[in-house]
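tl;dr need the bound structure. longer version: we got a ligand (5CA) that a collaborator sent over and nobodys looked at where it sits. i said id run it. heres the input, straight from their email, havent touched it
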Amino acid sequence: MSDSDTTAAIPPAAQRVQEAARRLGLDITAREMAESTRTAEDAAAACGVTVGQIVKSLVFVGAQSGRPYLLLVSGSNRVNETGVAAHLGEALRRPDGRSVRDMTGFAIGGIPPFGHDRPLRTYMDADLLQYDVVWAAAGTPRSVFAVHPDRLREAVKAEVIAVV
Ligand code: 5CA
C-alpha cells in the first residue's frame, strides 16, 4: 500500500472506531482508502489481500429473543444460518439496513467489529484465525484497519465458531 492510499484526516466514524479500539487495548490504525471497501471483494482489492482475509461484520437478530448477534465472518465464507442458529439455540433473521444502523450506530458496508452504540454478543468465524493479518471495516465504506485475528478475538471477547 502506498502513502497515496491513505489520508491523515480520517472521518469521524473511523475516529470513533479507533478510539473504541484503544479502550479495548487494541492498537490499530484506521485507514481511509482511495477506493470503496464497501464489500469484502472491494476491500480485498483495495487492501491487496485475499477475500478470505476480509472480516465481514454481519448483524443477525434472534427470531425468538430479538437479541442482536454480531458474526465476524471471513470474506470468502457464506454463513450457514441453520447451523449457526442451532449453535445459538434460536432461529436467526437478517435485519434491514436501517435496523442495523440503529443497533450499531454505523451504516452497512462500514460496520466495524467493535465500537457499536450497544455491546453486541459476538461470534468469530474460525477460518479467520488461519491468517497472520485480517482487515475489517473501520466505520465507513472506505475505512479499514488491519489486525491479527487473535488480537481481534481477544479484544471483542468473541466465541469462535464454524459458520459454514
Ligand atoms: N466494508 C466491507 C468489508 S470490511 C463490509 O462491511 N463487508 S460486510 O460484508 O460486512 O458488509 C456488507 C454486508 O452487508 C453484505 O454481506 C450483506 O450481507 C449486508 N447487507 C448489504 N445490504 C444489506 C441490507 N440492505 N440489509 C441488510 N444487510 C445488508
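gonna send this back to them w/ a short note. The radius of gyration is 15 Å.
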